[in-house]
Automatic annotation (TrEMBL):
This is CarD family transcriptional regulator. Pfam families: CarD_C, CarD_TRCF_RID. The lineage of its organism: Bacteria, Pseudomonadati, Pseudomonadota, Alphaproteobacteria, Caulobacterales. It comes from the Bacteria. Residues 7-117 form the CarD-like/TRCF RNAP-interacting domain. SUPFAM superfamilies: CarD-like.
Amino acid sequence: MSKDGLQFTVGDHVVYPAHGVGQVQGIETQEVAGYSLEVYVITFDHEKMTLRVPTAKAKVSGLRSLAEGNVVSQALTTLKGRARVKRTMWSRRAQEYEAKINSGDLISIAEVVRDLHRAENQPEQSYSERQLYESALDRMAREVAAIERIDREAAIGILTKSLTKAVVSA
């Protein structure tokens, strides 16, 4: 058991704030500057990347288990809510959206998806809005997919259904 209370085993799906859902491939001990350091080896298939996170720093780095069921249902409820778009400059809003996506918090990510979602009858998004929306949707879908043990496309279907219900009821 690591000092911070986080304990993952090989095969566990985890969420790293800046990269989303990854899978623990191993726990290794590495020699760094004369010190022995235990690290989680996490792979992110969608980014073709491997990350090594010191087990002692896992919690402060934001590494966490997949969201619990109540958090997922809260996030889906968030998607059904009314979009809250601040009347600030786009660059400021974009920074806030980016920070929410990289927070690793499923509900914050759901807020970004909700706020940037466009229905068929709504005006076209700018390129940067679309990029942020796709990034948030992808991050959320990957976590829902890992929790529900379905593929990313099926997860996007679930999220889209929640978003379209929101538009119809609005």
